[in-house]
Amino acid sequence: MKTLVVLGGGESGVGAALLAKEKGYSVFVSDKGKIKEKYKEVLINNAIAWEEEMHTEAKILNASMVMKSPGIPDKVPLVKLIRSKGIPVVSEIEFAAMFANATIVGITGSNGKTTTASLTHHILKQELNVGLAGNIGDSFAKQVLQKNYQNYVLEISSFQLDDIIKFKPHIAVITNITPDHLDRYDYKFENYIASKFRIVENQTEDDFLIYDADDEVIVKHLENNPVKSTLLPFSLTKRIENGVFLENNNIKITVNNSEFIMPTTGLTLEGKHNVKNAMAASTVAHLLKIRKQTIRESLENFQGVEHRLENVLKINKVQYINDSKATNVNATYFALESMDAPTVWIVGGVDKGNNYEELFPFVNEKVKAIICLGADNEKLINTFGNMVDVIVETQYMSEAVKIAYKIAEIGDNVLLSPACASFDLFENYEDRGRQFKDAVRNL
């Protein structure tokens, strides 16, 4: 009997365990931390063996395959040991795809992938049987087991791509590549870029790669490392024969001589980056033969993603905006770029080696006050201290929002866009965003 050992008892791990059991594997789930109660119950109800707060090596090294949670780095001694024994280590994406007889759209990138994946799913579900999974929602494996959709839109992180072997989306999207998570890639940007490009490594000329042709990192990588996939670039600045470009505020898509035009005025999402997200999503829809009218209507009624430039409330004519999902500088760049009023900016958290320079023009032009919300705010204060009249620090969300309320005047914005990870003071970026929204509602 084949044995699957699952390292990490979270959403993806438990989903993979359920699918593996159904497919006749003997399954063992091992988590170095505590497993959440809701996941423990699922394992117990399905008679799947598990352990927490430890890894029993003898049991783990008995596996015919190991599925590891994306949160576990390759440099962990246990992972090195497993690999040294010749046991294949895969991600949940790889494992679930082995059993999904479906058309897969895989979306990766440093920023915009959640919005693009959600928007793509929103369009496709109007006419297709389609699931949304990966880094978002219910695990891919669980959906393959329970729903068995004919199509999937997967939001995929570089960590998930690091452990694929044969995984191949029919349509791949790379939204952009900017330095992020470099701590996991030996602080080498080229390692991170290569990791993102694994999304196309198994593609053939019958498959498609949709990518941002304005992103120099992507364009340069493609020049030096040609791929087999059929390329469909999108751009806000240049005319594109086969792909997507912007002309007189119209998105123009050309694929195999068939054309589709969508005015950007109809988009519900604001900002240049969202025009790009819409370009990528509508190209996928066009390839999968969704009707043009359906694409247009879907782009016009899409509500956006929680914690991504989410308008929370207007109080005393001040707009409070939750962009907690901005966990790196590039995401905050888009947020500040789209501000059209003086802004009180709440920033900070766990710094991943951030370089804040690209934000300077926006901070000088748009930001009237900065509230540093982190366990260690020294770098922020040194970087921005001279640029704004008011810079304060706190370690409590409720206090950050109260300070912002005092500073903001009629017509201003209060923007939570941290540019950092959340783990110093919060459980995750969702927790941070919800605490912000609760604090705003309690003003």
From TrEMBL:
GO MF annotation terms: ATP binding; UDP-N-acetylmuramoylalanine-D-glutamate ligase activity
Cellular localization per UniProt: Cytoplasm
Domain Mur ligase C-terminal, first and last residues per copy: 307-420
Reactions catalysed, as given in the entry: UDP-N-acetyl-alpha-D-muramoyl-L-alanine + D-glutamate + ATP = UDP-N-acetyl-alpha-D-muramoyl-L-alanyl-D-glutamate + ADP + phosphate + H(+)
Uppermost EC category: ligase
Bilayer-spanning residue ranges: none
Keyword Transit peptide: no
Keywords per UniProt: ATP-binding, Cell cycle, Cell division, Cell shape, Cell wall biogenesis/degradation, Cytoplasm, Ligase, Nucleotide-binding, Peptidoglycan synthesis
Pfam families xref list: Mur_ligase_C (PF02875), Mur_ligase_M (PF08245), MurD_N (PF21377)
Pathway where it operates: Cell wall biogenesis; peptidoglycan biosynthesis
EC numbers on record: 6.3.2.9
InterPro entries assigned to the protein according to its UniProt record, in alphabetical order: Mur-like_cat_sf, Mur_ligase_C, Mur_ligase_C_dom_sf, Mur_ligase_cen, MurD
Residues that coordinate or bind ATP: G109, S110, N111, G112, K113, T114, T115
Protein's GO biological process: cell division; cell wall organization; peptidoglycan biosynthetic process; regulation of cell shape
Location (main, coarse): cytoplasm
Family: Belongs to the MurCDEF family.
Protein name, as recorded: UDP-N-acetylmuramoylalanine--D-glutamate ligase
Lineage: Bacteria, Pseudomonadati, Bacteroidota, Flavobacteriia, Flavobacteriales
This protein's encoding gene: murD
